[in-house]
Automatic annotation (TrEMBL):
<dbReference type="Pfam" id="PF08666">
    <property type="entry name" value="SAF"/>
</dbReference>
<keyword id="KW-0472">Membrane</keyword>
<feature type="transmembrane region" description="Helical">
    <location>
        <begin position="41"/>
        <end position="61"/>
    </location>
</feature>
<dbReference type="InterPro" id="IPR013974">
    <property type="entry name" value="SAF"/>
</dbReference>
<keyword id="KW-1133">Transmembrane helix</keyword>
<feature type="region of interest" description="Disordered">
    <location>
        <begin position="1"/>
        <end position="32"/>
    </location>
</feature>
<keyword id="KW-0812">Transmembrane</keyword>
<protein>
    <submittedName>
        <fullName>SAF domain-containing protein</fullName>
    </submittedName>
</protein>
<feature type="domain" description="SAF">
    <location>
        <begin position="68"/>
        <end position="127"/>
    </location>
</feature>
């Protein structure tokens, strides 16, 4: 055998021995799979994101299903102006039940009414914001008459009552045979309190009588008479 053949034989035997796996598994040739690290915060955050998304979807669905079709103002209508059909439109929104909005089916009732308050564009129409007429009306004025309880009727006054404001001579004057000056008026409202010693009665009078009534009321020498409520 030549030297070359002997070398080949030795190399082949070495390869055969190295290719045989150890029977007892003692050699460190098997590598364990890496262990995954759990991140609790990531899991909690993911769960919260899913929950929030579900709540938002539920709220959006509920808001849409509970929305009502009501009237909204498209262009500003100032107090006292007549509401035109082009001033309002129907919108679908969710509103608080405490807000007395006007349904879209009431459009014909609203058109032609007057704005009881300023109606800004983009706002909702409410029952309190519209009226068949405004106070004071055309060629009328409202005057506040401050009176002590002694110069008022004992019957509580209500809006719409017809009254007369009568000029008086005052505490030191004397009543003459001449008929005192009176101004017919309609009660608009009453405010103040008897605890303060004075009530203010807002009355509506013709425009031409407003200046005189205001001047007489300022002197404190007037009384108020309630006329019949029968119509």
């Amino acid at each position: 055998m030549s030297v070359t053949d002997e070398a080949r034989t030795t190399t082949g035997r070495g390869r055969a021995r190295s290719s045989q796996a150890p029977a007892d598994g003692g050699a460190g040739l098997v590598v364990s799979p890496p262990k995954l690290r759990r991140r609790p915060l990531v899991a909690v955050a993911s769960a919260l994101a899913v929950a929030v998304g579900a709540l938002v979807s539920a709220y959006a669905y509920t808001s849409t299903s509970n929305a009502d079709e009501v009237l909204a103002v498209t262009s500003t209508v100032h107090r006292g102006e007549v509401i035109d059909r082009t001033d309002v439109t129907a919108v679908r929104v969710g509103v608080d039940p405490a807000l007395r909005t006007v349904g879209a089916d009431q459009l014909d009732r609203v058109v032609g009414q007057r704005a009881a308050t300023d109606l800004p564009a983009g706002g909702l129409v409410t029952d309190e914001a519209i009226a068949a007429a405004v106070v004071p009306g055309r060629d009328l004025s409202v005057v506040g008459v401050g009176l002590p309880p002694a110069l008022l009727p004992g019957e509580p006054l209500r809006a719409g009552d017809r009254v007369r404001v009568v000029a008086t001579p005052g505490d030191q004057g004397e009543v003459t045979a001449k008929e005192p000056r009176t101004i017919a008026a309609t009660v608009v409202g009453v405010h103040g309190s008897e605890d303060t010693g004075q009530l203010v009665v807002d009355v509506q009078v013709p425009f031409d009588d407003a200046a005189e009534l205001a001047a007489r009321a300022a002197t404190g020498k007037v009384a108020l008479v309630l006329d019949s409520r029968e119509r």
